[in-house]
Amino acid sequence: MSIQVDESYEILKCDICNKPLSVPPIIHSALLGYICGRCENKSKSDEKYGDSIAERQIIYENLAKYITFPCAYNVLGCSSMLKWESVLSHEDICEFKNIVCPLSHQNFQEQCPWIGDHNQLITHIKKDHKKFFSNPLQIKLTKEFESKILFWEITGHIVVIILDRKDTNKYFCCISADFNNKDCLKYQYQLEISNKQWGNPVIFQRDHLEPLYGNTFTRPDNSIEIDIESLKYLFKKSNEIIIKFTINQKVVSATSTISNAADKYFSKVENELNENLLHDLECPICVQYMTSPIFICEMGHNVCHDCHWKISRCPICRGNMQGGRNFTLEKLTEKINYPCVNREIGCSFVGLLANLKKHENNCLLAQRECFIGNCSWKGAHLDLKAHFEEIHNLIEPDTIHVHQLQKKVDQYFISFDNKLFLLNIRFDINKPFEYIVQCIGDDKIEYKHELQIIGSSLIDIKIKLCHLCQPLDYKVDRKTIRDFTGIAIPFTFLSQFLTHFNQIEFKIKIMKIDV
């Protein structure tokens, strides 16, 4: 299952940096609102935020693993949509983000203040740092063990080799390129340490390049570690130590295997209906899925709309339920694929919240109760039409029917467009004739009707009444059916249509409203 956050994602932004809530940990503060992982340290270090109670949003983070987010630099032109786990690494190397020159590194004697975008980096390096290009690709070490840098070019991309002395005992070697993550996996490299007197070089290998971004050179896990004491031993044998670098593109079969494995993994994630994810969306009180509106306590715990009005304290932390609505979680629930409530009895429907209620209102496996009179029938939705046809008045549309005015209240059912419609009639002497047509199971108006009342054979007149079909929930109570408010026709007017037997003849027609 995958959720894509597009131009409507405004509410899913950090309240400090205004970037997407796409980097963990996601924190909710009663004072600040929602804070992304980019700003976590800032919120902790700022004195004015110090007293604010913050709660990590575990539910949001679990949901976010199934979301594709826009890059934080989409306003500058980046169109990438990113999975939760790859957001930060992409944004660090995003071509629309400014990057500093690798020679800005504090351990180099020559420091460069240049800042620009990724597209201009190679031009800058070729122009201002040409002397750091080397062919062959090697570094000569001195007994001072200074930090070193080399540049190289592959297919129009810059490769940066840094040998960084971070402390007195260690060198850290990192080779990075301004490729994306996937292209970096297509290359491998090795470094070979040797001197003239020592016949067997020391070889280190790594199976991928690192993507070039701001903190590449400050992360030890991206580097090969070289012990300086061992190098000092080599200097006892010779006055010169050479480190040679070799960068090769992997054979096609190896990169294809990597690519295919990644595609299979993401395909599995895309098609997975994750039970743990749905479990996180359950209200802690009623254990039903939370949908908009969702309410949040002062510590960040969530409860559904129905349960919120029944409690004054959070069922988890006993805190006050005064946090208001969780608009961010509400926005996410609109993009989650939910299973039908009837899945345990065989329904396989899975869909977005906007489509779920409409489906459940007409799910063939939903259990129904007849709401007409004293009828006690119960059964599946798919049997409802047969029940109305057998026990109640299921009539054909656009066909003449006869209604007896002796009945104060009567109901007729019409089947149209795979839906059931209720024609409800109420009449009492000296009171208006009232009727209403409702579409059963709909939650919005999509149909209209035309009721035609036909005069007796002695007078050739008829009237047509056109109106909308109002929605009617299957769970409606019998009193609501009986006490409806509908379209009224004065009896003095209707009387001219009566036959000798206090009957009226009518036709009912249902039509889909043109959008």
TrEMBL record:
Gene source species: Cryptolaemus montrouzieri
Keywords: Metal-binding, Transferase, Ubl conjugation pathway, Zinc, Zinc-finger
Alphabetized Pfam families for the sequence: Sina_RING, Sina_ZnF
Zinc-finger listed as a keyword: yes
InterPro entries hit by this protein: SINA-like_animal, Sina-like_RING, Znf_RING, Znf_RING/FYVE/PHD, Znf_SIAH
PROSITE patterns, per database record: ZF_RING_2 (PS50089), ZF_SIAH (PS51081)
Recorded GO MF terms: ubiquitin protein ligase activity; zinc ion binding
Residues covered by the SIAH-type domain: 66-130, 335-393
First and last residue of the signal peptide: none
EC number: 2.3.2.27
Family to which the UniProt record says this protein belongs: Belongs to the SINA (Seven in absentia) family.
GO biological processes: proteasomal protein catabolic process
Protein name per UniProt: RING-type E3 ubiquitin transferase
Enzymatic reactions: S-ubiquitinyl-[E2 ubiquitin-conjugating enzyme]-L-cysteine + [acceptor protein]-L-lysine = [E2 ubiquitin-conjugating enzyme]-L-cysteine + N(6)-ubiquitinyl-[acceptor protein]-L-lysine
Transmembrane portions of the chain: none
Gene3D superfamilies reported for this sequence: Zinc/RING finger domain, C3HC4 (zinc finger)
Pathway(s) the chain acts in: Protein modification; protein ubiquitination
Superkingdom, natural source: Eukaryota
Enzyme class label: transferase
Domain RING-type span(s) in chain numbering: 283-318
Classification of source organism: Eukaryota, Metazoa, Ecdysozoa, Arthropoda, Hexapoda
